Amino acid sequence: MPFDVWLAYVATILIFMCTPGPSQLLMLSNSMAHGVDRAWATMAGDLTANSLQILAAGLGLAAVVMASQTAFLVVKWAGVAYLIWLGVKQILRASGHRLGLGDGPRKSLRALWLQGFLTSAANPKAVVFFAALMPQFMDPSLPLAPQLFILGITYLAFDGAFLTAYGLSADWFAKRFSGEARLWAERAAGGFLIGAAVLLGLKSVER
């Protein structure tokens, strides 16, 4: 793959990633609520889902996605409801702290991974986005698998870097809160979850 084509691809995905989406807000929330060390599991879940979406795009499954909008709508709105439930639960948990009711059970790494995976997988636009974007930077006269691998790894690397930046920033701010400010930080974490749900709800295969 020519280096200038790769640079154009990088510029394209950087523009795409500059606007926070559901996965970024989820990373913010979990880093604030659980610390970035545990939020790495959320990032791993997101990247796992993205890897499967890139693979599906590479195998030509975008047409199947387009033909299965009803199934994707069910998955999407289930994801929206799940994130809203988590956000409300987080806000109520912060209120419980205010009332002295304790911290409640610690969320497992598996649960944090599942949140990241489901939030990304519930986005019906993702596989269509990859299927529409990547062919623009691929040369059909060259072997396609190596090109898809380079483009996919590049996307995952930048996605991981952005999620890391969100997570480290949220963790840094959260660690400097205490007392009442800490409770508001936990409520903000719940608000980020609800915001992620709203962004996910606004996405569709067509847009």
Q: In terms of quaternary structure, what is this? A: single chain
- SSE series: HHHHHHHHH
The coarse overall form would be globular
Number of separate helices: 9
DSSP strand tally: 0
Q: What percentage of residues falls in helices of 4 or more residues?
A: over 70%
- For the termini, the CA-CA separation is 29 Å
Reported for the largest beta sheet, the result is: none
Whole-number average pLDDT? 78
Strand content: under 5%
Low-confidence stretches: 98-104
Measured on Cα atoms, how large is the radius of gyration? 18 Å
The count of domains is: 1
Helices and strands: which structural class?
Answer: mainly alpha
Helix and strand arrangement:
Elements: H1 3-17, H2 22-34, H3 36-58, H4 62-67, H5 69-98, H6 109-121, H7 126-133, H8 144-174, H9 180-202
Helix pairs in contact: 1-8, 2-3, 2-6, 2-8, 2-9, 3-6, 3-7, 3-8, 5-6, 5-9
What does this structure look like?
The chain has 207 residues and is mainly alpha-helical. It has one domain (23-28, 37-202). The protein has helices at 3-17, 22-34, 36-58, 62-67, 69-98, 109-121, 126-133, 144-174, 180-202. Helix 1 runs parallel beside helix 8 and helix 3 (36-58) packs antiparallel against helix 8 (144-174). The two termini are 29 Å apart.
